[in-house]
Design goal:
This protein has about 60 residues and is α+β, with helices and mostly antiparallel strands. The protein has one domain. The chain contains 3 helices and 2 strands; from the N terminus they run ββααα. The protein has a two-stranded antiparallel sheet. The protein is globular and about 35 Å long.
């Protein structure tokens, strides 16, 4: 499993907290969005991060 880091900040534009998981420290940048009304860790829970871990860990 690649390096995982949790980020949380308050968005004044949305008037709520925003939570994000980021994975890896190098490799190709990949953005995965949760489904409508999904939770921020949905992609990890459904093992989608494991399926792209090679891209997250690969040296460019």
């Amino acid at each position: 499993m690649p390096y995982e880091h949790y980020h949380k900040w308050y968005s004044p534009r949305l008037s709520r907290d925003i939570e994000v998981l980021s994975f890896g420290t190098r490799g190709y940048p990949v953005i995965l969005f949760p489904t409508s009304m999904g939770h921020f860790n949905e992609n990890k829970d459904f093992k989608l991060i494991d399926s792209v871990s090679w891209f997250l860990d690969e040296d460019l």
